Amino acid sequence: MTSALLGVEFVPLARALEPKPDADPDSAHARMRALEAKYKRDAPHKDFDTQFNSIVFGDGDPCARLMFIGEAPGADEDRLGKPFVGRSGQLLNKMIAAMGFSRERVYIANVLKTRPPGNATPTAVEVEACKPYLIEQIRIVSPEVIVTLGLPAARCLLETNDSMGNLRNRFHNFEVAPGHVIPVMPTYHPAYLLRAYTPENRKKVWSDLQMVLDRLGMAPASA
Ligand code: URA
User: Which protein residues touch ligand 1 with a CB less than 6 Å away?
Assistant: First the structure.
């Protein structure tokens, strides 16, 4: 297998990420649809300072082995109703492709499902209101590994105020249900990477993603 990282760019590497062997796609899709409907009925965002056009619930394979969690929809996501479809999304797609996967075979969600005005960082109250729905999404997907993108998602799951510098580059345990622990790899948000697109930062993200590949038993032969 050739190196997925060429001159510290995210270079696509084609291979399959199969769904979990015990997956029941019909049931997972039905549970995810029911959860989205419940979210819409409950409208936990109703008291938020938000002017949204779309509820951006999630995207991808609800039986995926790998799940990415971002912060909140931006303007493009709000317009199109899907997470990570703007500039950050294009970079995330590249990162996923460099891991050798297609976006359709992973599951992508955000902590908040509606766009905060001016892309403001979610408040603690907003995160707490939306967290139960995210946890239920994680229970349905039941991924082998979670990658959190940016601090708000890492802090939400890991209940910490630690910095990204301290959190990334190692796995943390997230107990999604009693006795069901999922390893979480925090890494930088693609929007941060776009603002600071340096070889050093790309190397850090790629190294985090390689640890994820390793955990999935899919580490590239060379890097
Ligand atoms: N940033 C996020 O955190 N999520 C999106 O869906 C888009 C941008």
Answer: 70-74, 77, 83-84, 88-89, 110, 191
